[in-house]
Amino acid sequence: MDNQELLELIVKANTEQWEELDLSDQGITELPPEIGHLTNLTELYLNQNQLTHLPPEIGNLINLTELYVVNNQLSCLPPEIGQLANLKQLYLWNNQLSYLPPEIGQLINLREIDLSENLFLQLPSEVLELTNLKRLELSSNPRLHLSSEIGKLTNLTHLNLADNHLEQLPAEIGNLTHLKQLKLISNQLAELPTDILELNNLTELYLNANHLQQLPGAIAKLTHLMRLELGSNQLTQIPPEIGNLTNLWHLDLSVNQLSQLPEEIVHLTNLIEFNLMNNQLTQLPQAIGQLTNLKQLGLNYNQLRQLPTEMEKLTNLTHLYLENNQFPFDIPAEVHHLSPAEKIAYILRQQKQAERVT
Question: Which one of 138, 192, 286, 358 is least enclosed by Cβ atoms within 10 Å?
């Protein structure tokens, strides 16, 4: 879209009093000052362009509630952005931002801000003034240092700190007691920060791709957890207290170094998705058949030599992955294309035949 076409579209939007304008993926390098005429706009999308800055006139759009400037080349924001008093959602991921103007702190109605994939070295102090903030996306700022100030955002319900090379978290993270979702994927955490265990409203905790070697039994304090992601760590065992997390429906323990599971795992009767692929499991708990709500079970790339007969009770399974284990009999390739119930039946038959022979 060339500049003339853009101006014509703005005139049309103004004449017809548009409330939403999507200018995404139009090759726009500069937004004309005329954009400030569109005072009826409540939503403005400027994603996937080549914008390096926004005009001061953006501050005229006082009815905006949502502003998306994703996948651009912004290195700064105009001070006038602080005039957008009704703004609730501000998405700025994948730009070149390393700081925010002080006026950001005036956006008292802001509920969501996404600063992922930028160049921030620390949490902007202006964000700390946004006490009504519910969602903070701050992933992929690889030189980010997280200070104790994060504890001031006590109304947060969603916090994303993935892919920031974090080796530890400030203790004040424990102040965020309204958090429901915490993403710490792809950092360098060697142990689970104990302060996380105070976040007893968490329903989703993502710790994939860290350096965790053990999981504390106190994980049982997070009784509202429904989704727990621990894949791609260095866990060698799981504490029996995990059996207390009875609200879990998704549990990912894949790509670790587990050789066995605690018997208490069978108390997780609400589990629907359970991923154990790429561990060193040689056997499964005999009572695994109690997990009757399971629909997906990943057991491939382990060292299993047999399956418990109780697995016949897992009648809700729709996906069962068993490839690359150590069963003492051949499993034809076509078996892996059978339904989960048929796979289990085949392997149990082979086990019985092997027992007769011995």
Answer: 358
Question: For residue range 171-215, what is the model confidence (pLDDT) as tens digits?
Answer: 999 999 999 999 999 999 999 888 999 999 999 999 999 999 999
**Does residue 182 sit in helix, strand or coil?**
strand
Three-state secondary structure string covering 304-315? CCCCCHHHHHCC
Sign of CA dihedral 218, 224, 226, 227: negative
pTM above 0.90, yes or no: yes
The per-residue pLDDT for range 117-157, each reduced to its tens digit, is 999 999 999 999 998 999 999 999 989 999 999 999 999 99
Report how many domains make up the chain: 1
- DSSP string spanning 208-266? -SS------GGGGG-TT--EEE--SS------GGGGG-TT-SEEE--SS--S---GGGG
Contact (CB, 8 A) for 18 and 40? yes
Angle at 45 between CA 117 and CA 50, to 5 degrees: 55
Range of the domain at 29: 3-357
Tokens of 154: 């006590």
